[in-house]
Amino acid sequence: MLPPQITTFLFAMTPIFELRGALPWALTIGQLSLAEALFFSVAGNIFVSVLLIYLLPFVNWFAEKYWPWADRILQKIFAKTRAKHSKNFVRFEKVFLATFVAIPLPGSGAWTGVLLAWLFGVEKKWAIFLISLGVLISGILVAGFTTGAIAFVKFF
Fold first, then answer.
1. Distance in angstroms (rounded) separating the CA atoms of residues 91 and 65
2. Full residue range of the structural domain in which residue 138 is found
3. Where does residue 84 rank: exposed (0-12), middle (13-18), buried (19+ CB within 10 A)?
4. In 25-57, which positions are buried (b, 16+ CB within 10 angstroms) versus exposed (e)?
5. What is the distance between the alpha carbons of residues 123 and 118, in angstroms, rounded to a whole number?
6. Average pLDDT rounded to a whole number, residues 63-73
């Protein structure tokens, strides 16, 4: 059994739950304070984002070299996405990326933000900053929703 701080950090690194699952878990089941829960969930989500930003080029190279059939399919999808959305993404790049990551909805977290940053060629330092900003905002929103829901349930 791992301490709740480490479990929260690792839970925040997962692609589906990310911070949106780790923070409520830490506050309810993990019994962490709000500050601890926010710190470890945000830190885990940012850590995996930075890791992915630096690993994605390697994954792309690996797919090109060892799975050319999959690379061709992905390149077609990526080219279509770039053609369709690049004009708007370039215009609103910084605001869009941080906002997209900050919105606590399924499919709009740090993992997808990293993919978008890579897909549209956002410079690594900007991608790290914007995704981290989005994760922090998301953490504050999720903490507010979670603590508000807990207070509401305790009220009854």
1. 34
2. 4-155
3. exposed
4. bbbeebebeeebbbbbbbbbbbbbbbebbeeee
5. 8
6. 79
